[in-house]
Amino acid sequence: MKGVIASAAVLFSRKVPAVETCSQRKISFPLYRGFNLLEKFSGQGPRRPFVEKDFEIMADWGFNFARLPMSYRHWADKNDWFAVREDVLEDIDQAIEWGRQYGIHINLNLHRIPGYCINNRQTEPVDLYEDTPENRQKALEGAVFHWKMFARRYKGIPSTQLSFDLINEPPHLPDETRHVEVVRALVEAIRQEDPERLIIADGKDVGRLPIWGIIDLGVVQSTRGYDPVSVSHYQASWMPPNAFQTRQVPTWPLKADDGTIWDKDYLKEKLVKPWKELENQGVPVHVGEWGCFNKTPHDTALRWMADWLQLWKEAGWGHALWNLRGDFGVLDSRRPDVQYEKYKGHLLDRKMLELIRNY
What we know:
Blueprint: H1 2-11, E1 33-36, H2 52-61, E2 65-71, H3 86-102, E3 105-113, E4 116-117, H4 133-153, E5 162-165, H5 177-193, E6 198-202, H6 204-207, E7 220-225, H7 229-232, E8 254-255, E9 261-262, H8 264-279, E10 285-290, H9 298-315, E11 319-321, E12 341-343, E13 346-348, H10 350-357
Parallel strand pairs: 1-2, 1-11, 2-3, 3-5, 5-6, 6-7, 7-10, 10-11
Antiparallel strand pairs: 3-4, 8-9, 12-13
């Protein structure tokens, strides 16, 4: 932490002030539909550039959105947040350029930001949300540094091509006070460098619920499509045991162990209605992540996905599947009960693809 502390002392000599009210800011957010691309997601292993073929494939299928969930540890060390690897940033530059070439909007997301990640959060040297006031401030200063860096680097690229998604899936907290404070600091930092950048904030409680304390900022808010977890993450070993409604082989609709019936109407009431209320306050809504792990029976997954997609179509919201290639995706998902189609060097789940394309 010596590098972090020393650099922070130089770069930040005051607390981050509140953001200027932007309630009159006009937000243009089209119906963006696409996928998450994971080359910078893990923060571990060798350098992995983004893949041009992914952009070509998405464009061929008619999609227009790529969310890039990224760990800062690809271009900086957890013990010195302020020493940045230029070569890794050039991979991100290339992805943005491919987005421009193929007509795909690029959404940069910090999946791991200094002081927080939904996965292995405890490996951060200090915690952005739940720590001493001094350590929370250190983490916030690190987070501000990285978003200011991106804002400076990409100033001039229009928001029709590029947006920023501040923090992936903030934690469950007793109230939204701390997250509002963090979002306001990051929004102000970005707008100091690039006042016109389109900004997205993931909802509170791991993206499930709107953040009411930032509706004046003029930012989009991002929800999720993973509920019920017993369908979307069946047999996913990384999920906490209390996340599941039942451990039985999932069906759709799903009957939880407590007797709750999860169906399309329940999803609408519990997980769409609160966001429509936010949207009625002038805040655009997007589904930044959704999808179904490959252990869920394919027919069940498709029925569940169809209900979510119908709800989002009725609401007028776009969405980004986690992921394009991999265990949740339409390519190379390794499902045992799918008859795959060979497609440009991949194995394609054609039924899932056509379902998503219909919405």
